[in-house]
Amino acid sequence: MRKLFLLILFTIFACAIAVSWFDNMVKKPLPIKQDFVINMPQGAGANTLAGQLMQQNLLPHEIMVKIAIRAYGFDKKLKAGEFLIKQQMSLLDILNKLSSGKVIMHKITIPEGLTSQQIIELINNNELLVGTIDFPVEEGSVLPETYSFNKGTKKSDIIKQAQKSMKDHLRNIWQERKEDLPLKSDEELLILASIIEKETGISSEREKVASVFVNRLNKGMLLQTDPTVIYAITQGKTELGRSLRRKDLQIDSPYNTYKYAGLPPKPICNPGIEALKAAANPLDTPYFYFVADGKGGHNFSKTLKEHNQNVQKWLKNR
Questions:
Q1: DSSP string, the chain
Q2: Is 292 exposed, middle or buried (0-12, 13-18, 19+ CB in 10 A)?
Q3: Phi, psi for residue 109 in degrees, rounded to 5
Q4: Most CB contacts within 10 A, which of 27, 112, 162, 307?
Q5: C-alpha closest to that of 122 among 133, 197, 141
Q6: How would you write the pLDDT of the chain (318 residues) with one tens digit per residue?
């Protein structure tokens, strides 16, 4: 009985030492020489984590990871994604981070003025996003912005997020619009903003360009804006790749604002917030015309005579 008692006591003592040693090993900073990334795919667990830590030569044996996950209650708590592992982190620190869901966030920027087809191509070319965009993306429905996402996010989720952002901003900007605009709905505001976006990339000019189109709409004049004709030719699927020709202005399309009065039926691109605000709050100006000044901006004029003079200046500068 004495020997049995001593054996039990020794076993308890040995187990206590083993538990203490293991707890110390789990909480001890790992020999991480430099920060690195652990990638946990959807459904990955102890084996995936252990393999990546072993590749970094951070553990004597992968069984430590499996025991630690069980012993410290991390079963079914590990999240999918990319996680930044920093120097001085312990195995327990790593398990806590992987269960917290604090993944590395990436960014994708959608520039202003792209067509929906161009945006789809931009998103499809991002190797960190997964899946397909299996639904039509209406022109003008996506708000150009920088969006954050973690590796493995669905491409369709980026589109849906950008569409919601456009819907929310458009609604708010429409509610704060200037009185007596010749626009019947927020959809018409979106169409006008898309034209403004294509006509100028200079922030200080957007409200002035907007005033020209608003003045023309109020007078019942043709908008005569080249970007709508380009869209009539390309349908937003490709770049025109050349200058407009005189015969292009005769194309029979509702997007041809040299031929048909009023706004085109749909947006011609996806405008940014500043273009939307300019369409909703144009400056009060007497201008009905504008043409490139050859220096990146535009010259504005009240009369056709002044406009023709500005055209001649542009041709000379070019």
A1: -HHHHHHHHHHHHHHHHHHHHHHHHHHSBP---S-EEEEE-TT--HHHHHHHHHHTT--S-THHHHHHHHHTT-TTTPPPEEEEE-TT-BHHHHHHHHHHT-PPEEEEE--TT--HHHHHHHHHT-TT-BS---S---TT-S---EEEEETT-BHHHHHHHHHHHHHHHHHHHHHTPPTT-S--SHHHHHHHHHHHHHH---GGGHHHHHHHHHHHHHHT-----HHHHHHHHHTTSS---S---GGGGG---TT-TTTS-S--SS-SS---HHHHHHHHS-------EEEE-SSSSEEEESSHHHHHHHHHHHHHH-
A2: middle
A3: -105, 125
A4: 162
A5: 133
A6: 766 555 565 556 544 554 565 567 788 898 999 999 999 888 888 889 989 998 888 888 888 888 888 888 888 888 888 999 999 999 999 999 999 888 999 999 999 999 999 999 999 999 999 999 999 999 999 999 999 999 989 999 999 999 999 999 999 999 999 999 999 999 999 999 999 999 998 999 999 999 999 999 999 999 999 999 999 999 999 999 888 999 999 999 999 999 999 999 999 999 999 999 999 999 999 999 999 887 788 989 999 999 888 888 878 777
- Overall size of the chain counted in residues: 318
Tokens of 70: 């069980």
Residue found by looking up tokens 């040299």 in the block: 258
Residue type, 11: T
